[in-house]
Amino acid sequence: MNSTPTLTRRLTLPMLALFGLGTMVGAGIYVLVGEILAVSGSFAPWAFLLAASVAACTALSYGELARRFPKSAGEAVYVEQAFHRPLLTRMTGWAVALTGLVSSGTLAKGFAGYFAFFFPGSEGLAAPCFIIALGIIVAWGIGHTIWLAVIVTGLSILGLLTVLVVSSHYLVHLPEVAPLLAPASSDAWLAISAGAFVAFYAFIGFEDMVNVAEETRDPERIMVPAILFALIGATTLYLLVALMAVLASQELDLAGHPAPLAAMVAHAGAPWPAIIATLSMLSVSNSALAQLVMVSRVVYGMADGGHAPALLARVHPVRRTPLLATGLTVFLVVTLAAWFPLLVLAKATSLIVLLVFAVVNVALIRMLREGAMPRRRMLVPALGAILSVGLIAISLLSEGHAGH
Predict the structure, then answer these.
(1) Is this prediction's pTM over 0.85?
(2) Residue 111 has pLDDT above 90, yes or no
């Protein structure tokens, strides 16, 4: 008897946790630490900590919702379950897809920046070729994609630990920098908030995890611990590297640097900055791979739920992946990467993600109020919604403040 091919459940707890950790680790610290230093200066570690606090509340909300509604296009499903408004469901789903598209464009730019370390002047060609190659991997199958992501996650973490060890020379500046780390004024907190708005991009990843729920074994049991593992691991690494980057800034200009970690290692006198640049490219590739998976699954989930053309819900009978949705994703990412600079893409991603997070938290609050879930958990989504909206407001205030 013929049947319509569907997605297959292959992801275990370790695979899912490392998939999320790899998404976060590559997304921010390898690409954006230079931009965050330019915005927040010596307060960069505080910017990462504030961004982590905002992400943590929403991550717990996502985990709770993913346990109960383990579907692709997770955010759209949650909003549909809470509000039963098709237009709001579509807007949420496409907003999530847009975040992944813009984020992938950011990562393509970041990859091109590190690629230029080896081949100066190659940025224009490197970005589209990078995305097309990753699209082929995503189309090949979820099992191969996640195992590749897990391997590269290990290399990414190894790269960050190597940066910390090689850059330990910069610890000599800790006594002189320590007094500058304490935010003692309103301007300092504005700088931290503006940096956190950009740094928040580095925590994008746990929402990618919920969008592969249909391909996860026992998502009701493993989703929450996998999300928490990824978030805690990423935050720890970010704080250590951000602090070391602040210390290194006493000797070299890292603000806005396109390949900041390779520059730190090279300046420290290490004989192999090319290795760090290579690991950086692999880490960025890992994050972009996860974003392409997420977007293709959101597009598939939207089509499967009747909120997008049914053609996009077709699954390849052998590869068990949504080929048309993946192809559309690759085309749109290549277009975005060609049009916009890195910081603009990162800020746009953070803005859209924070808006989606606020909506998802409100959806969970609505379910709790209607008795669909235990009301004792109301505090977490309330904080998630307030912090998400607050970070947007403060970042806009800091932009206006900088403009004057």
Answers:
(1) no
(2) no
